[in-house]
Amino acid sequence: MTLKLNRLIDDPVRAARAIAPLARALRDETEHQRRLPPPVVDALVAAGLFRMWVPRELGGAEADPRTLVEAVEALSAADGAAGWCLMIAAGTSLSSGYLPSAGAREIYGDPASIVGGRLVASGRATRVDGGYRVSGRWGFNSGIDHATWLIGGCVLWEGDRVLLRPNGAPAMRYMFFPKAACDVIDTWSVGGLRGTGSHDFTVEDALVPDERSFSFDEPCLRAPLYRLPPFALLAPAFSAVALGIARGAIDALVELATHKAPCGSGALLRDRASAQAAVAQAEAQLRSARLFLLDAVDVAWGDTLAGRPLTLEQRALLRLAATHASTSAAHAVDLMYAAGGASSIYTTSSLERAFRDVHTATQHVLGQSQNYEAAGRVLLGLEAKITPPL
């Protein structure tokens, strides 16, 4: 399989589809072990999928945003946990365009490097000669078991005071740590996306050299990918997981309906009007939300290629489309779970897993209702007040 995947390194979507059957076959192991099995990790590394947003000069795909969305969606349809871990590592690889060149080469120059971590500023960093002294604890580090490097967001301190940006917000910077230098704390006992292994990690008084730190204020590379606002890129990537999970749920219900005869009925589930309506509604909701997302992504990418910076309204529409995709996907899964009847409640059911996974995914800050409010404020001519920023 590795040789075949190597040939697909320039086609991430085809590569993700090629790996999907393996992820599906091993998803029970993924769930029980709370981590991706080595064969799945190895396949993703061989295909270069963890490095989709690494620049070509460092051996990455430097893929356009739509490509990453479709690759994550394809893998998530097979296993939500695998898709989520891919989204985290591939999305985080955007940092390669913001790191100083020496740090980018050190971290991303190795084709086998996998980056995880969390951008939330749960750490404290103090400036010293040549870098920063950092301590902190970060939660929700998906894929930490297979990661080789971890990112931790930090607030910058000077003595006993927090440094402030010109707008009065705390100054922040993101630090890279070798995973081997971090203490991993087993915290991931959850209902959904169990296989992501999103444990905590800590560092204490770690020295981080300048070349292993960055901010999103200004990219070091000027390729179009790195000119887009970071969270305008990351929000669609997050929603791709929910889209894929919903696609898998619809497929699972269709398969179930072809052989299940509900209790007290001589007819198959597929012959019931309620099941027919549920499948149609789920399909319509999923397809329309997906098209809204892809249209927003394509328009933003086209303007970026043309050298036009995104307007505030475009950034708001990207966040709106991403949140709408996630919530629509969750509703589609709910329809399929209900249509499956009692068959859906067993832990052996794909519908039961999809229900847990999609509702875990949509609990992320990029899938919650405040994103609708922020987009609505912009559309009404008001200031957007939201974290992370549009």
TrEMBL record:
It comes from the Bacteria. It holds the Pfam family Acyl-CoA_dh_2. One of its GO terms (biological process) is fatty acid beta-oxidation using acyl-CoA dehydrogenase. Residues 16-99 form the Acyl-CoA dehydrogenase/oxidase N-terminal domain. Keywords: Oxidoreductase. InterPro entries: Acyl-CoA_dehydrogenase, Acyl-CoA_DH_C, Acyl-CoA_Oxase/DH_mid-dom_sf, AcylCo_DH-like_C, AcylCoA_DH/ox_N, AcylCoA_DH/ox_N_sf, AcylCoA_DH/oxidase_NM_dom_sf. One of its GO terms (cellular component) is cytoplasm. GO terms for molecular function: acyl-CoA dehydrogenase activity; flavin adenine dinucleotide binding. Residues 238-366 form the Acyl-CoA dehydrogenase C-terminal domain. Belongs to the HpaH/HsaA monooxygenase family. This is Acyl-CoA dehydrogenase. It comes from Sorangium cellulosum (Polyangium cellulosum). The gene is fadE.
